Amino acid sequence: MHLCVQRGDIANRVIICEDSWRAWKLARYFDNPNHCIYVHSPRHFEIYTGLFQGVPITVLASGIGTPMVDFAVREAKFVVDGPMAICRFGSACAMSKQTKIGNVVLASKGGFIV
């Protein structure tokens, strides 16, 4: 609905970032960046799906905020068969004082790991 995608437009491996310029830059690393699936939805989601080292991957620009990421994840899962690996790539503010610039933050059941 919000993403305007159909089955086959999104890979099982997804990188989500807020910024459309950052998504475009990441998609330039595809094996053949000029021949990828590109979707720009009326809700301003931008989706690039192609191959990286022969593996299908999607880069998705969600826009700013948790609700936008929620739409992206839920709707992407709806059109993808099987398990998905989703990584958020960005520079959002820290969730705690112990989180430093350059830390990798991983979600865990009921919290996060720094």
| Strand portion | 25-35%
Number of individual domains: 1
Walk across the major sheet and give the strand order: 2-3-4-1-5
Terminus-to-terminus distance: 34 Å
What's the structural blueprint in terms of helices and strands?
Layout: E1 13-17, H1 20-27, E2 37-40, E3 46-52, E4 55-61, H2 66-78, E5 85-88, E6 106-108, E7 111-113
Parallel strand pairs: 1-4, 1-5
Antiparallel strand pairs: 2-3, 3-4, 6-7
Provide a descriptive summary of the structure in words.
The chain has 114 residues and is an alpha/beta fold. The protein has one domain: Nucleoside phosphorylase domain (Rossmann fold), CATH 3.40.50.1580. It contains two helices and seven strands, in the order βαβββαβββ. A five-stranded mixed β-sheet has the order 2-3-4-1-5, with helices on both faces. Strands 6-7 form a two-stranded antiparallel sheet. β6 and β7 form a beta hairpin. The N and C termini lie far apart (34 Å).
Summarize the structure.
This protein has two helices and seven strands, in the order βαβββαβββ. The protein has 114 residues and is of the alpha/beta class.
Q: What are the salient characteristics of this protein?
A:
114 residues, alpha/beta, Rossmann fold, 5-stranded mixed sheet, 2 helices
